[in-house]
Amino acid sequence: MQGASHMLLEEPVRLASVLAPAKPKVFPSLTKIVGTLGPKSHSVEVIQECLTAGMSVARFDFSWMDAEYHQETLNNLRKAAQNVKKLCPVMLDTLGPEIQVHNSTGGPIELKAGNHVIITPDISKALSAEILPIKFGDLAKDVKKGDTLFMGQYLFTGSETTSVWLEVVDTSGENVNCLVKNAATLAGPIFTLHVSQVHISLPTLSEYDKQVISTWGCRNNVDIISLSHTRSAEDVRELKSFLQSHDLPETQIYAKIENSEGLDHFDEILKEADGIIISRGDLGIDLPPENVFMFQKTAIHKCNLEGKPVIVTRVVDSMIDNLRPTRAEATDVANAVLDGTDGILLGAETLRGLYPVDAVSTVGRICAEAETVYNQPLQFKKVMWHVGDPMPHEESVASAAVGSAIKVKAAAIVVFTFSGRAARLVSKYRPTMPVLAVIFLREGSDPSKWRSYGTTQARQCFAVRGVYPLMGSTDEAETGGLTKEEYGIKLALNYGRSVGIVKPFDRVIIFEKIGDSSVVKIIECEG
């Protein structure tokens, strides 16, 4: 199994298919797409197009703009989602221990290789090619001679050419004297300063983050929080405790791994977090370029074995200004899918790119094509081996559901679930068909509170590979007197037909829990 390929290729069939006209997809890719909403994806119309094109999760990046702007965008998202009759989870991305250089004028700053520049916490100083004021007083204590600093504005430009490498020459009091290693022209209101492989004495969950979560996050009952610059499992536990104390116990935490500290503590972070985001931007600064791919593959593999969603960032940067990605970018997206990623995160491509809708649809098409050659049998065996014998009952039934679906060539797997956990468990075994998760009210739960709780569980499923949630009901007016099972099957099949994944005489696998037992059965759709 060590030398097995992540691809299933049968020649000459696959090679011939490359030359054949592309077939229109009737359903989005199994791989999910996270879109960052901003200036170019702010309106109801554009967000609606992004949702139709395949965006599954909406990300709100609080490292820029204020809560009022993000609220306006979220209100537009809700209108757009209602228009296309879709649920869409809200991901709040924290600022974290990020050092920002503020350019009050927004004018260009030209830095020349070989010159020196002083980084100072004295924000009364005007920004120039010689002085970079920051809102952090302890940088001189954290760095030493020879350390590497990276300053750029990827979020605003999507281009690494508007970034500069600095080398620490010495420190004087609170000031840090640096040598400019490459020429660059920086323009815009904010530049981000990243110190490579150095612990910065700022908290992972900043006071600003706490303020945003306790106000905007609580008011909007956010579904997922992306914890930027996660450095240890304790960071995740701290955020969990904060969420509990602010009545957000159901909000999931995705740990964003973007520095060497997070990489060093990856295994313990994975156990504590609900999901992982591999943030290759900053990670590519902390790691030598030749090592980034190895961490990506290893991290995705570990997430797959644990059944935790994993999302990869920084894939089609060139689409900020171009209608098509480069060949290397397209291959990179496909390789992430073949590695086993649950989702692809688009940042500047949708936030300020010229073609936000095309970025979503293009990445979706690449993902869908890569999924046709994904080596599911290999992944199935790896997970089975990792779980071991004797298998827990739920793992046994989930794997049996996927195995049965593959054998009978089922069009879909229907899962009845209260919390979404059963659907995530089925996804862990990487079925090649969609998982339709019908979210039901748990027995004994308060119906008046369930609609809010159930919607949160359903939306969170949209971040998991292949899972498409549906809201079940216990209201007799909606169920028409059918049993829960009959109603759930009817709901799932009607949805499946409406989006083109279930056709007459197709087989569908039903996975449900009855009492303490789980049951898998096969049904055939009517002609």
UniProtKB/TrEMBL annotation:
InterPro entries: Pyr_Knase, Pyrv/PenolPyrv_kinase-like_dom, Pyrv_kinase-like_dom_sf, Pyrv_Knase-like_insert_dom_sf, Pyrv_Knase_brl, Pyrv_Knase_C, Pyrv_Knase_C_sf, Pyrv_Knase_insert_dom_sf. One of its GO terms (molecular function) is kinase activity. Pfam families: PK, PK_C. Residues 395-514 form the Pyruvate kinase C-terminal domain. Pathway: Carbohydrate degradation; glycolysis; pyruvate from D-glyceraldehyde 3-phosphate: step 5/5. Its cofactor is K(+). It catalyses: pyruvate + ATP = phosphoenolpyruvate + ADP + H(+). Signal peptide: none annotated. Its EC number is 2.7.1.40. Keywords: ATP-binding, Glycolysis, Kinase, Magnesium, Metal-binding, Nucleotide-binding, Photosynthesis, Pyruvate, Transferase. Gene3D superfamilies: Phosphoenolpyruvate-binding domains (3.20.20.60), PK beta-barrel domain-like (2.40.33.10), Pyruvate kinase, C-terminal domain (3.40.1380.20). Residues 31-360 form the Pyruvate kinase barrel domain. One of its GO terms (biological process) is photosynthesis. Belongs to the pyruvate kinase family. This is Pyruvate kinase. It comes from Panicum virgatum (Blackwell switchgrass). The lineage of its organism: Eukaryota, Viridiplantae, Streptophyta, Embryophyta, Tracheophyta.
